[in-house]
Here is the input.
Amino acid sequence: MVKIRLRRIGNSLGILLPRGVLAAWGVGEGDVLELSGNVIRPPARGGFSHGELDELRRSIALAVVRRYTPRQIRAQILANLHRWKKEGVWGGAYEEWLDIARAEDDGRLFAAMLGRDEDAVRLRQSAPFVGLLPREEVRRLNEEAAG
Here is the structure.
């Protein structure tokens, strides 16, 4: 247990936390801590940050590209989109994916799956090439991303 002394900071009182505690919590200057009752703690991490989540999606897309041909990927995209539309599950990005899959332009397909620009990041949020990788590989990629 570490004892922390209250100190005057301007017209208020505050505390200084040891750098080791801040590092262990993964917080720094400008971050927010939670105060609940008589406990101060870092905010609970609710999974991945946006950047981490996109890197996970990108790593899954890369694994798909390494394992399958563009033709196989397009076939899966078209099959998924057809099924989702029939089931009434249709998102705004799906029309763009449909155009990409029908265009048979490998560069455009790979740009959407692996690019780092805003459009690629947005499109990966609704990636219709799911179902190609074995569950074990997807699980391994998720575990690697979680650290």
